[in-house]
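Consider a concrete sample entry:
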Amino acid sequence: MIAIVTDSTAYLTHEEAARLGVVVVPMSYSLEGGASISEGNIEENDDCEQMVKRYMGTIHTSQAALSAFHATFSRLRRAGFEVLCLPMSSRLSGTCANAVLAARELGGPIRVVDSLSTCAGLYLLIRRACAMVQAGESLEKVEAEMIALREKGRTYFSVDDMTPLRRSGRLGNVKSSISTILNIKPLLAVREGAVVSVGVARGKIDQMRRLTSFAEGAQGLLVVSHFLATEAAGDLEKQLLQQGRQVECRRVGPVLGAHLGSGCIGLSWLAT
């Protein structure tokens, strides 16, 4: 038996985690000087997203702890499971390093694959891994497939304000001069696990058009993600559905939201 482990930035619901057989190790966040709050499954964060928006700039986030991975892996091994862990990109968080260290300390059939992604990109990898596990594939085969498949992950997104990303230190090669003055919307992507700049859009209409254009020729499921941008996400989803595409719309939780800011919207898929 193989158990899939991930961190909370995959933003699975309780129902999805149960159905897919995924164990979620929480990230955490806090107001400056306040108590730490576990992120957990996405529906646990309903009352926290507005708090993150209100106190943007004073929210601190923490990676999934080494002790949490150690406890999770130990519990699953005692129950007779082999373990495949898919954490968020090592270039965005120390979460992957903690998972690797816990696996190394425990030994045995525990594999950690750096997803080189997060959020919807991580969710898509988890879906594929779970399908392989349910089909009876071996741990080694699932691990190899995830290493190959992560290179096919595509995530493009746009934010209303670059300040949270600048403050987070996770900008990769994004120029600090990019701003939202004159209604310019930065267009960003996750490539090789890091955030990079891929251009700008002028206003909301062009933002939607450019995000849609990135997915031209993409096959399979397209995932629209957003943090406090329900209307914009709905518009993007509608445009893609009108093109006959398969689309799913998902929320981003407070940990990533604190780094992306309200109004963030993105599009992810796995290339063929």
The chain is about 40% helix and 25% strand.
